[in-house]
């Protein structure tokens, strides 16, 4: 039996960096993460075992160190932390940080800021804070029609949520041009998601069974599973090795494995060890 493991399986650079930073603070008293560090119960539980819990707002707990997750936050959080004497451990993904800088600079120059993204996503809420919460957040080209953008003497900057689909952003660019809006577009889409999605399709097409490892709460893992199902009938979405049974692999010659951006390497390794055991 052959096992094909996706090169892009598991943590992206930004998530790995944030999780590593959180574990570095494991022995420090009074350390909290601002929201769950990632959508993965295994990682959250293991941080909780080491005394690091997520909080939703500053003020609920006696916080000494506050870890900002890879999604980033509004400047308000840094200000509030400083006022309360909290040490901020900034694990914002550098790619997200770059968006904060663009948005702040352009906002200060008087530009209106348009973000292509989901208004409820923490990354977008954080970015919005860098323009004093004045951003126009559009989920698709249709949403643009509801906006009252000024056509005279007003310039705009368009950026995108790092995990947004390029096609949707391209359509937004097209409509802004049609409307005659004076804007600059900075492509802030991160390739990590796209590459992972392309690879799952490529592997699912050539295997008998495809395993997608990730939490049911992780939307990027679910998306991988949906893509896998389109190309491999025997696709399974599993949280960890305890959900596997050797019967799933009867008469199977090739197995593919991928994992969402929030799936730890240990979960992937346990599944590989399980498969190696049943094939020997
Ligand atoms: Fe950063 Fe891209 Fe991951 S923006 S958090 S490396 S998906």
UniProtKB/TrEMBL annotation:
Keywords: 4Fe-4S, Iron, Iron-sulfur, Isoprene biosynthesis, Metal-binding, Oxidoreductase. One of its GO terms (biological process) is terpenoid biosynthetic process. Its EC number is 1.17.7.4. Dimethylallyl diphosphate binds at residues 39, 71, 121, 218-220, 262. Binds 1 [4Fe-4S] cluster per subunit. Its cofactor is [4Fe-4S] cluster. Transmembrane segments: none annotated. It catalyses: isopentenyl diphosphate + 2 oxidized [2Fe-2S]-[ferredoxin] + H2O = (2E)-4-hydroxy-3-methylbut-2-enyl diphosphate + 2 reduced [2Fe-2S]-[ferredoxin] + 2 H(+); dimethylallyl diphosphate + 2 oxidized [2Fe-2S]-[ferredoxin] + H2O = (2E)-4-hydroxy-3-methylbut-2-enyl diphosphate + 2 reduced [2Fe-2S]-[ferredoxin] + 2 H(+). PANTHER family: 4-HYDROXY-3-METHYLBUT-2-ENYL DIPHOSPHATE REDUCTASE. Belongs to the IspH family. This is 4-hydroxy-3-methylbut-2-enyl diphosphate reductase. It comes from Cellulosilyticum lentocellum (strain ATCC 49066 / DSM 5427 / NCIMB 11756 / RHM5). The gene is ispH.
């Amino acid at each position: 039996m052959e096992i094909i493991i996706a090169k892009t399986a598991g943590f992206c650079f930004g998530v790995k960096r944030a999780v590593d930073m959180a574990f570095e603070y494991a022995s420090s008293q009074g350390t909290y993460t601002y929201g769950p560090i990632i959508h993965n119960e295994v990682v959250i539980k293991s941080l909780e075992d080491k005394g690091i819990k997520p909080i939703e707002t500053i003020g609920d707990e006696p916080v000494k160190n506050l870890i900002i997750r890879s999604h980033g936050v509004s400047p308000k959080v840094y200000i509030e932390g400083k006022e309360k004497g909290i040490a901020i451990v900034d694990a914002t993904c550098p790619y997200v940080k770059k968006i904060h800088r663009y948005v702040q600079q352009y906002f200060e120059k008087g530009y209106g800021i348009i973000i292509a993204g989901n208004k409820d996503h923490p990354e977008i809420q954080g970015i919005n804070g860098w323009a004093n919460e004045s951003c126009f957040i559009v989920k698709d080209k249709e949403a643009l029609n509801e906006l009252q953008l000024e056509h005279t003497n007003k310039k705009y900057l368009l950026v995108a949520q790092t995990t947004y689909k390029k096609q949707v952003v391209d359509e937004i660019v097209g409509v802004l041009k049609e409307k005659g809006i004076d804007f600059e577009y900075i492509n802030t889409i991160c390739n990590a998601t796209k590459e992972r999605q392309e690879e799952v399709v490529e592997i699912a097409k050539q295997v008998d069974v495809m395993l997608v490892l990730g939490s049911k709460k992780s939307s990027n893992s679910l998306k991988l599973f949906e893509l896998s199902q389109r190309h491999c009938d025997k696709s399974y979405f599993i949280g960890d090795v305890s959900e596997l049974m050797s019967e799933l692999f009867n008469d199977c010659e090739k197995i593919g494995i991928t994992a969402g951006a929030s799936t730890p390497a240990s979960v992937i390794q346990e599944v590989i060890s399980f498969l190696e055991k049943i094939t020997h």
